[in-house]
Amino acid sequence: MPKKVKISVIGIGLMGLQHIKAIQRSKNASLHSIVEIKKTGNELAKKFKVPLYKNTKILLENDKPDAVVVATPNVLHETDTVQFLNSKIPVLLEKPISDNIKSAKKIISSANKNNTSLLIGYHRRHNSIVNKVKKIIEGKKLGKIVSANILCWLYKHKNYFNEKMENK
């Protein structure tokens, strides 16, 4: 049996939890660890029987995973992602890549410089609504589609954008 890819999840908010669920279902991956500063991190680390780290630096000093999912607030993407890329650890980074262009360019530059994979998580392509629309289009129920312009707005509460990472 091939060795499972050990993946650490950084940030266990809504999307981090979704990634943990996907890792749990995978035959090819296992949850390596969790990085989280909130109290919920302790509970989840116990539930999934994995180590909990308070920041990425401590994780990298103790036990490097094979890959990571960075699902922290956007303003924190650069700090964590660049650390992993500089350690040559592939990163699946939740969208958007960053909250500003300068930071996004630094992340991309780090991936290129270290020749390390950087993937941006566009999870909505797997959304059940999107899949249903895709089937309708492929089934030609709307006729022959030659062009489309689609916009999707989803509400995020104000506190989502105010989250700060402590003990970094």
List its traits.
168 residues, alpha/beta, Rossmann fold, six-stranded parallel β-sheet
Show the helix and strand layout.
Layout (H helix, E strand, L loop, with lengths): L4 E6 L3 H12 L3 E7 L4 H9 L3 E2 L2 H7 L4 E4 L6 H10 L4 E4 L6 H14 L3 E4 L6 H11 L19 H5 L6
Parallel strand pairs: 1-2, 1-4, 2-3, 4-5, 5-6
Helix pairs in contact: 4-5
CATH homologous superfamily caption: NAD(P)-binding Rossmann-like Domain
CATH architecture: 3-Layer(aba) Sandwich
Basic shape: globular
CATH class: Alpha Beta
Biggest pleated sheet: 6 strands, parallel
Spatial order of the strands forming the largest sheet? 3-2-1-4-5-6
Along the chain, the helix and strand elements come as EHEHEHEHEHEHH
The Cα radius of gyration reads 18 Å
> How many runs of DSSP E, i.e. beta strands?
6
Query: In angstroms, what separates the terminal alpha carbons?
Result: 38 Å
Question: Counting H and I runs of at least 4 residues, what is the number of helices?
Answer: 7
Care to describe what's here?
Strand 1, helix 1 (14-25) and strand 2 (29-35) form a beta-alpha-beta unit. The chain has one domain (5-162): NAD(P)-binding Rossmann-like Domain (Rossmann fold), CATH 3.40.50.720. 40% of the residues lie in helices and 16% in strands. A 6-stranded parallel beta sheet has the order 3-2-1-4-5-6, sandwiched between helices. It has 7 helices and 6 strands; from the N terminus they run E-H-E-H-E-H-E-H-E-H-E-H-H. The chain is globular.
